[in-house]
User: What shape does this take?
Amino acid sequence: MKLSRIAGLLAGAGILACAQMAVAAPGDVTGGIITFDGEILDSTCNVTTGTSGNFNVKLPGVSKEDLDASSKTTGWVSFPIALEDCSKGDVYASFSPTGTFVDTATGRLKNTVGAGTYAEFVDVQLREDDDTVIKIGQQTTGGNTPKTITIATEGDGATLYYKAGYYATGVATKGLVKTQVTYSVAYN
Assistant: This one.
């Protein structure tokens, strides 16, 4: 009796397995395997610009007439980010879109000086050293590829160069401009 019950259960399980296989036709794919590849580096790079990687970029004083219409730019200043003790690979500065300073729609930095003393209708835009516009938060999306420097030998350094300048969002008014961005050294 027990043997026939076990045989019946096994036969039922076999029929169920066959039925399940019949539902998925040979050409139908209902799932698959996703493989993730990466590498843990010994270290990335040490930033030697500024103090602990923090530094100021002084933009020049400019006339509001230079920013009298939307999309006009002026006051471009080049700034370096010096690196040492890097791991091998292609390195760039990744500018973070987090915080109150970044306009995530435009990828530019908002002026954050308090009311009454700040210039209105002015953002700060970042560019690669070849004048390619950097849209903060969009550096590696939508086909955008950041400019990199190759570190060929473990422990070598490099200097990344970028530019910052004023960008008019309308007819600029006179006043102060102050903003900031968080960055990190990234590998491509």
